[in-house]
Amino acid sequence: MTWKLQAITGEFTGQEILIDRDMLVGRHQDSDIILQSSEISRKHAAFLLKNNELWLQDLKSSNGTFVNDVRIEGETLIEAEDIVQFASLKFSVLQEAQKIEKPTFMQGVELQPVVVADKEEVKQAIQQPSEAIATSETAAKQEELTPAQQMNEQGMPDLKARDASVQVTKEGMPTNVGIPKPAPIPADVDLTAPMKREECEVEIPAVCVEEEKEAQKNASVGLVAVIAIVILAIIAFVLFK
Length: 241
Description:
Helix content is 27%, strand content 20%. By secondary structure, the chain is α+β, with helices and mostly antiparallel strands. The radius of gyration is 61 Å and the shape is elongated. The N and C termini lie far apart (136 Å).
């Protein structure tokens, strides 16, 4: 366990001093904690570590050593957050938190390894839909079946379940089955002659014919009237010029 001193007054205010062993406090250059002040004795006091406990001892200093504003003479036990004072220089005592040790595994307990699937296998399993997996399994299953078993899977009866009078070939096709003949072709039909395309006559209603004639007549009358007006305009222009 380690301890810290944090300066409260003087030129070292705010600074921290680590105490992890027995340390001498004083103005002498051989001191572990050197306090350059005329009121500090050459060998002022000493910090002592005993069984992770911090003790402070005054070394017959001129201006005294204090703990919580009480002057001490012999060894005094120091607690966390105590205020120690050398002459007029005050320090706060801090205690570092203990390090948490890592848990150790019990002896005799065997840890089972964790099997992690390959990343590519996981990726393919995610990308491949369940329908594709089912289709591939069905195809593999059909490849293992014989032709007769495949026919049974498709709903076709087994050869043994058929009529015994029906004989089949090696390919499984029935024999002695009559095939219907096509209808005879008439003798007067020439199969080599090109086929003629019959044209359909479309009969136009009489009303449509009359309307067409009336439209043509009106157009002719209108054209004649326009020509006459143009001629009259030319004659009038010549006479009155």
